[in-house]
Amino acid sequence: MLQNSKMKFLPLYVTILVPVTLCQLISIPLHRMKSTRQLMAEVGTDLSDLEYFLKSKPKPHRTNDSVALFKYMDSEFYGIAQFGHPGQPFKMVFDTTWGNTWVPSSKCSWLSPPCFLHKKYNSKASSTYYPNGTTFKIDFGSTGILKGFLSTDEFNIAHTTVKNITFAEAVNIPMTFAMSKADGVLGLGFSSISVDGVTPIFYSLLQQGAIAQPVFSFYFNRDHTSERGGNLILGGSEAKHYNGSFTYFTVTERGYWKIKMDRMEVDTGKKTVGECVSGCDVILDTSTITIRVPNKTAKKLNDLFDATSEWLGRTRVPCNLIPKFPPLSFVFAEKYFIVESHVYIQKVNVLGVTFCLSPFVAWDFNSTRETWVIGGAFMSQYYTEFDLGKNRVGFALAR
Q: Which chain regions cross the lipid bilayer (predicted)?
């Protein structure tokens, strides 16, 4: 999750198999889940506190110290990873805007809904646990504080086990997480944004020889009728998920996966609307399906889609007009990456009623340069490769 953004999730179901040989690809199937926003609507949850949070839109800093939780309201995917021996499974969000990994602790109070409703890590049940004890804390602004302590244990994902992974056991979790299907977050950001200097799990996979290449990639399946959400590949990319070859762009700051965008264009047929026309920064965020843009940009773009109303902080659009909505053209280094309307419009079913949502969410990043945060609405059209070794991001047309 953008350590300074709003929220959404990447759900993944991982089947834990036997250990594999070293230095191969680790393929993690992603499975679709109902977003927190959708679940809240289905149960008629009181949204007064959430509405206050949505309006407040806390400004993120440039470190991991402040994380806005809003984006996790829009998570569609989660995955299973195991901590300890024998393994304790957790549903995790795989997030390129976090450096740290955390799960609820058995020491978290049962009186706390975010703890009561989620799986909790029990260090006493693990033979490979090693205490660390360092205090862990991230301030979410108006929504509360994520607080706990660091621990070290064995970690298992898909076919692979690595030793001595340090992660956070959370004993105080903001209420925003109460309705989330995911238990915790696995950070795939750079080590420079990791709180307390903790080594990110992906770095540990490299150091222990579990994968040969410092590369991971995401394939998202936008077929809303399928529970299969896609794949996360650790150690490289899978050619079966894309056509042609990758086009690469240099990461401008080793913290977030941030690249430069020339502009974004929308051809309505009558006129071409341009945004980010002087260039802007783009942060790639695998934990959300939205596209977060400056406030004035969000209003301008949403007006193009005949926005009808607000739905739990998102902008509704007419479902019957999706085929008529124009494609979005994202321009990087004068190369056009076009996203079709059936990909970028999100469909949500609540108790048999379908809502269609614009991908654009108003959010101003605390930066001197205009910054967008692009999630699954773009990456569902383009298979995305994150290359830590060569400090770059690659896009290829997804199959």
A: 12-30
